Amino acid sequence: MILTKFPLLLGAVMLAMMGSSVMAATSRPLRCLMYLTGQHPVAPQIDQLDHITHVALAFMSPSIFNDPLNQEWPLFTTVDDVRPRFPKHTKVLIGIGGWGDTIGFSVAALNDETRTLFAENVAKMVEATGADGIDIDWEYPGGNGEDYKKIPNSDKQWEITAYPLLLQALRAALGPEKIISAAVPGLERDMLAFTRETVPRIMRQVDFLNVMTYDMMNRRDTVTKHHTGVELSLKAVDAYVAAGAAPQKLNLGFAFTVKYFKTEQDACAQLSPVGCPTVEMEDPITGADLGSSGAFSWHDDVPKHLRGSFERALTQGVYDDEQGGYYYWDPTEALWWTFDTPDAIKQKFPKLLEKRRLGGVFAWGLGEDAPDYEHLAALNQGLAMLKGEDTDERDEL
């Protein structure tokens, strides 16, 4: 009697286990961090922000934390002003640094004494502002930052070992309850400080990393590619995991911005638009911008001389199913356009978030998507799907 019923019982148990496994795969907590920037300090109605778990106010300069006498923490807004604009569960972080603002980090990381001073001042700032933690935007420790032509990477090699030591000092000063996150490069060529030796040490100090899987085409490139492409994003995520980061502690980056690049006219007319040569976009001696590329957010006015070409990009652009990215090459202006549409954003959830079991997402930045917030809506729909919530967009994902 028992033996004849055992297969049925076993089958019922297996079905129950499979059901709970499916639920665990779809219904799981996911982070969603939004940068709120001084350039575009606006946000939609609070009912559109329910998925946002963290907001990072960008930025405070790292240099102010190297002054032993400093007691002022200048920022474009205050934590008290920001909290009511977001759901009660949203944690408010202070972003420190940003693209090009790196000298303060280098000074801070120099030795034990400077690291301690920096960290203790950061802790004072967090207490004074009432923030829930910090986001460290030392984006290119070890080199390849904005000044890479003026200061060679060899002069910054020491930063590779100093970077995790600075994070360690910050954790010691802030304690275990405060949040520490860090924005990190999306291009493997820029991951100089993120090696198999350093990443495990870094991950012990941070709650999560914000992997900048955007700006993956920039003026240092010589051929066209997707600046937020799926294939390049997978490579970025896999590089951090291979170096020792748990996927659940990685946030995938989204850019609410548009990028364009000037290309070679004749060559691109004869080749595939993806991978065709660009014109020279930065000074080979100084690294200065030569004006052959640019970017703007959805909140910005489109530059007058680009309006016609951008309109064609919106209406005639296509999605690259192979490498994963929306693009348009304008044969009239020889311009390469690369950006995420709402549909392109939604495709990243099964192709990246679900495939690699990542812990969340982040975007630069919330106000950059104003006034329509169409890209934020796509992000919300993708998060709802992965959380197992009901959504009208499920079939489209």
UniProtKB/TrEMBL annotation:
The molecule here is called chitinase
- Give the record's GO biological process terms: carbohydrate metabolic process; chitin catabolic process
What GO cellular-component annotations does this UniProt entry give? extracellular region
Under the heading Gene3D superfamilies, the entry gives:
Glycosidases
Question: What is the scientific name of the source organism?
Answer: Sordaria brevicollis
Keyword entries, A-Z: Hydrolase, Signal
Q: Write the signal peptide boundaries.
A: 1-24
Q: Molecular function (GO) terms listed?
A: chitin binding; endochitinase activity
Domain named GH18: residues: 30-386
